[in-house]
Amino acid sequence: MEIGPFKQFRSHGDGSFSPGDFRRLGTNVIFEAGVLVFHPENISIDDNVYIGHQTMLKGYFKNTIEIGRHAWIGQGCFLHGGGGIFIGTAVGIGPTVRILTSTHGNDKPRAAVMENELILRPVRIGDGADIGVGAVILPGVTVGEGAVVGAGSVVTRDVAPYSIVAGVPAVQLKMR
């Protein structure tokens, strides 16, 4: 394995924020204790949204996180917005869900993973979808309107509207 010169790392700050920091912040948005927000200038949150304790909204210097009205995001979630995250209206996201929008390529196969290209791909979650406790949504996935993702699932590909998926990797079980 080749190990080349590593980049100098820098801090992204402590995650503290104030309402005026956001690209858009609707009315009646609840941030429970311990919520961390990075790059709030690239995060838009609509009206009547709940964000649970210890959740991290990891915005990025480019692309956006957009959370639709009446969304509920449970405790301990991690949303990585590097590739962009679009969460529709009335979406439920259970505690400890992970939504990831980046991965490393394999442009230098013999190099350390961190030396390979960073690939950013958006995640979209349609209106009325429900993401179960502890699920992981991988980069580039679209979860269709009204779809249900079972607890603990790892979603590696698109989920059809009004379908129910579960498993590792998640597979369709039935239609709603």
Q: What brief labels describe this structure?
A:
0% helix; eight-stranded mixed β-sheet; 176 residues; UDP N-Acetylglucosamine Acyltransferase, domain 1; single chain; six-stranded parallel β-sheet; mainly beta
Give the SSE map.
Elements: E1 24-25, E2 30-31, E3 36-38, E4 43-45, E5 50-51, E6 56-58, E7 65-67, E8 72-73, E9 78-80, E10 85-87, E11 92-93, E12 98-99, E13 102-104, E14 118-120, E15 123-125, E16 130-131, E17 136-137, E18 142-143, E19 148-149, E20 154-155, E21 163-166, E22 171-175
CATH-scheme architecture = 3 Solenoid
Mean pLDDT across all amino acids: 95
- State the CATH class: Mainly Beta
Question: How far from one another are the termini?
Answer: 48 Å
Instruction: Please state the overall shape, judged from the principal axes of the Cα atoms.
Output: globular
The helix count comes to 0
> Which percent band covers the strand fraction?
25-35%
Biggest sheet: strand arrangement:
2-5-8-11-16-19-21-22
What are the secondary-structure elements, in order, as H or E?
Answer: EEEEEEEEEEEEEEEEEEEEEE
Give the uncertain stretches in residue-range form: none
Main sheet? 8 strands, mixed
Task: Give me the CATH fold name.
Answer: UDP N-Acetylglucosamine Acyltransferase, domain 1
Number of domains: 1
What is the CA-atom radius of gyration, in angstroms?
17 Å
The amount of helix comes to under 10%
